[in-house]
């Protein structure tokens, strides 16, 4: 501890350096003596200057909440989820005692990894078909939003 107190520190607060220079000028021997405040005092000074975490809000808003549009089409599931529907039915018939979705999901994931591309093709075909429908629906939705057709229909609902 004595070694650390005698060594000058690079990061000294403004008030500590000002008091050190004042004490150096007031030396009685004619020699310059530099006195450094103990770390406890500087900690107290820096803690007083920092804003307390209790003053800060716990959660910061990251932006405005996005309005969910009921008219907007939903994204279709991936090929894995179509496989999961079929696999869940088969798995529950073979293993009626297993009720945990966790166990079913693990078994389904393992089966999906071991399947060849040819086995997965039927699920990819379903998923691409649904994705094409979704893309068409999104184009129609965006066209309606740009023209303002949906806004008029929403306004009329409130006035009825």
From TrEMBL:
SMART domains: HMG. Its main location: nucleus. GO terms for molecular function: chromatin binding; DNA binding; structural constituent of chromatin. The keyword Transmembrane helix does not apply. Coiled coil: none annotated. InterPro entries: HMG_box_dom (IPR009071), HMG_box_dom_sf (IPR036910), HMGB_plant (IPR031061). GO terms for cellular component: chromatin; nucleus. GO terms for biological process: chromatin organization. Residues 73-142 form the HMG box domain. Keywords: DNA-binding, Nucleus. It is found in: Nucleus. Residues 11-24 have a biased composition (Low complexity). Residues 1-73 are annotated as: Disordered. Pfam families: HMG_box. The keyword Nucleus applies. Residues 73-142 bind DNA. It comes from the Eukaryota. Belongs to the HMGB family. PANTHER family: HIGH MOBILITY GROUP B PROTEIN 14 (PTHR46261:SF12), HIGH MOBILITY GROUP B PROTEIN 4-RELATED (PTHR46261). This is High mobility group B protein.
């Amino acid at each position: 501890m004595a070694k650390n107190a005698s060594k000058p520190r690079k990061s000294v607060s403004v008030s500590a350096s000002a008091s050190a220079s004042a004490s150096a000028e007031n030396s009685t021997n004619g020699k310059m003596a530099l006195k450094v405040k103990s770390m406890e005092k500087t900690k107290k000074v820096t803690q007083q200057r920092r804003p307390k975490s209790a003053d800060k809000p716990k959660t910061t808003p990251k932006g405005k909440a996005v309005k969910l549009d009921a008219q907007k089409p939903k994204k279709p599931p991936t090929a894995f989820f179509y496989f999961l529907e079929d696999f869940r039915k088969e798995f529950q018939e073979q293993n009626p005692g297993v009720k945990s979705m966790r166990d079913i999901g693990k078994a389904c994931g393992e089966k999906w990894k071991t399947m060849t591309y040819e086995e997965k093709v039927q699920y990819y075909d379903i998923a691409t078909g649904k994705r094409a429908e979704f893309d068409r629906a999104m184009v129609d939705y965006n066209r309606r939003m740009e023209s303002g057709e949906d806004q008029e229909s929403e306004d009329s609902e409130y006035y009825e």
